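Re: the multi-chain job from yesterday

Posting the exact lines I submitted so nobody has to dig through the queue logs.
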Amino acid sequence: MKCFVCGGEMSPFMEKNFGMKYLAACEYVRCGDCGLVVAKTLYDMPRSDWESLNRECHAAYQHTDALAVDPRWLERLQAQAEILAELVKIGVLDENSRAVDYGAGDGKLSDYFAAKIDSPPLMKFDAYMANPNENYLSAEDLLPASFDFVITCSVFEHLLGANDVEKIFSLLKSDGTAALHTLICEEVPRDPNWFYLQPVHATFWTNAAMKKIFHQYNFKACAYHVESRLWLMFRSLEKFSRLKKSARDFVCAEEFVDYWKIKPYRQP
Ligand SMILES: [Zn+2]
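And the result, structure tokens for all chains:
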């Protein structure tokens, strides 16, 4: 298996037993060049099994024990909504912007944002959890190069390769901005008990792998907000400089910000 990010050779890394209906045990492989780790078992399984596994896990995660799995979840979403409001105040987002939360789940981020600032609306998209009673975008609404802003929270660890990354970043206009919340570490721990090895986590990002993607998709600058665990990736240096001038608590660079260098990379 070749690394979908850098083309490097992937070799066996570890295994974990989940004992689930659709996932008994999972085999992980690691790229010798950029360090990306993927769950080979998930990449190889029939698409229908992957979707069944997702429905089972996401339902449990968002509706029953989300806070037990991730105690800071709602607090972090509020902090992320606060960042979006900040982007409106400094003009990185304005009333004409098209903005979408890709993988919005039950849409809490958009709702929190709307409670702070109502324009532009943060539209919602979710392939698995779209609520027919709310205003979710459909897959047909996701036209390439039609969004000024795309945010994904806890999505990148669920992706299954280059096509899934392409689906997200191809939505952005040539001066668009991406926001990303996932775990990106210097080196994926070889530890089957690592908290991040969840059944539907398929891709484990390293700084080196994300730096490659950052350049591949023509991002020019990056800002990381530590408290909300959110990366902003800019194609427009003009928008980046507005953020850099006025916003506090960001680590900024005209390069991907590889913030997490030492363990623990992130507490759950
Ligand atoms: Zn690689």
